[in-house]
Amino acid sequence: MQILPDMTYETAARAGGFAHIAGVDEVGRGPLAGPVTAAAVILDPAAIPVGLNDSKKLSEKRRLVLFEQIMAVAQVSIAHASVAEIDELNILQASHLAMCRAVAGLRADYVLVDGNLLPKALNLPAQAIIGGDAKSLSIAAASIVAKTVRDRIMVDLAQQFPGYGWERNAGYPSAAHRAALLTHGVTPHHRRSFKPVHNILYQGIKPTL
After folding, report:
1. pLDDT digits (tens, 9 = 90+) for 127-141
2. What is the biggest distance separating any 2 CA atoms in the chain, rounded to whole angstroms?
3. Which neighbouring-strand residues pair with 39?
4. Alpha-carbon gap, residue 173 to 178, rounded angstroms
5. How far apart are CA 169 and CA 154, in angstroms?
6. Distance between alpha carbon 39 and the CA centroid of its chain, in Å?
7. Strand 36-42 vs strand 75-81: parallel, antiparallel, or unpaired?
């Protein structure tokens, strides 16, 4: 039997005196191209969309329906860290930067963060939850929003830079994407600090397909 996310963490935070609890999640740590995207969501306990879950466990069709529902009934903030910031800071710190930017767009007084680390710059009471997108409804909602928005960004970039399959792989290092790097070269949207891209640019080493 599948265990679905619930409001246990949010209820505990409210019992502790907090009124505006945001769930935050990011998408895009693993890709070779594109930004990392974070979303922060404050759900209305009286209007929670049915079926919220970790975005990775949802079909694209279901995810898009839930995305529209979340945007209609919840407080939502979306933010990014650019490829340049990823290369400058490293992907973990860039992910945390995107999270902090997303949280800053809401009037939250408590934050539930997916993962095992809290962003150091997060200046609010917060709790890190490993696998939080499968445990907290607020984080699950944030994961759906972040993935939907980032996927759309990569579809748009795929129109500008065809051949890499970003509309299908969202910038992740699929075999087709790696092969396209060899054929078409590195674009301005590739992360130069990531090994397969770095090897092509600076060492002349072909990535393993």
Report:
1. 999 999 999 999 999
2. 58
3. 25, 78
4. 6
5. 9
6. 7
7. antiparallel
What is the Cα gyration radius of the chain? Answer: 18
Strand 21-27, strand 75-81: pairing: unpaired
Round to whole Å and give the CA distance between 93 and 38. 13
Helix (H) / strand (E) element for 128: namely strand 126-129
Q: Look-up: residue for tokens 């246990």?
A: 8
Give per-residue pLDDT as tens, 157-171: 999 999 999 999 999
Task: Give the predicted TM-score (pTM) of the model.
Answer: 0.94
Distance (Å, whole) CA 140 – CA 40: 10
Residue-level pLDDT at 201: 85
Asked if residues 193 and 87 have their Cβ atoms less than 8 Å apart, the reply is yes
CA distance 146 to 80: 9
